[in-house]
Design goal:
This protein has helices at about 120-130, 145-155, 160-170, 185-195; strands spanning about 5-10, 20-25, 35-40, 45-55, 65, 70, 75, 80-85, 100-105, 115, 135-140. By secondary structure, it is of the alpha/beta class. The protein has two domains: about 5-70, no CATH class; about 75-195, no CATH class. The strands form two sheets. Strands 5-2-1-4-3-6 form a six-stranded mixed beta sheet, with no helix packed on it. A hairpin with a 2-residue loop joins strand 7 and strand 8 (about 80-85). Helix 2 crosses helix 4 (about 185-195). The protein is globular, with a radius of gyration of 17 Å. About 30% of the residues are buried. The model has no long low-confidence stretch (mean pLDDT about 85).
């Protein structure tokens, strides 16, 4: 059931003066923290829910959709659990995007996910950078999926400690950061996937 939530973006000096209405595809309550896209480029920011109602508010013609509750990092897919790269801060008010890159193993085909095998992280990252602009969601699978996901998070500007904490929450440990022989263009494309 879709509901409508008024969000307050307190960390953004340009938005903190009033609440903005969003569609919310999951249950949410007043006072909860969520992630939602903001502005022309839909950069993800944290917001507080200040009002919830079951019908759209009068006078609002366009609604963006809340991305996730704060703290959400796993989801069920194809009979297994996969993990999000979304929701990690990469500057003082922006967070990595949800539903762009997931990692882990799922038991079967999951609707809306494009699997990308990562037994060799460099090959997987090269293949990911060669894709057209992200449409849908990529699921990194295989032995080095978590390594490739960590590399993408670092490229997006997420602090090392936050990368390691997210991987630990997902049940992974990470060897020392690996360097990959990728061009500047490939690195820029990869960094943009999560920002």
């Amino acid at each position: 059931m879709v509901r409508y939530a008024a969000l307050l973006f307190a960390a953004d000096e340009n938005l903190r003066e009033r609440a903005y209405w969003y569609r919310c595809p999951f249950p949410v309550g007043v006072g909860e923290q969520v992630f939602a896209p903001v502005g022309v480029h839909d950069r993800i920011q944290r917001a507080e829910v200040v009002r919830v109602q079951p019908v759209p508010p009068a006078g609002v013609a366009f609604f963006k959709t809340v991305a996730a509750k704060c703290g959400a990092f796993r989801r069920n897919a194809g009979g297994g659990t996969v993990f999000e790269t979304g929701g990690l801060a990469y500057d003082h008010k922006h967070y990595t995007r949800f539903s762009r890159v997931l990692f882990g193993e799922c038991g079967g085909q999951a609707a809306g996910l494009t699997p990308l095998r990562c037994d060799d992280a460099l090959c997987a990252l090269s293949a990911l950078s060669a894709r057209p602009a992200p449409e849908g969601c990529v699921l990194l699978t295989g032995q080095k999926a978590h390594v490739a996901a960590a590399f993408l998070l670092r490229l997006a500007g997420v602090r090392e400690g936050d990368v390691l904490r997210r991987l630990a929450m997902c049940g992974y440990s990470l060897p020392a950061a690996e360097e990959y022989d990728l061009s500047e263009e490939e690195l820029a494309r990869l960094a943009g996937i999560l920002q």
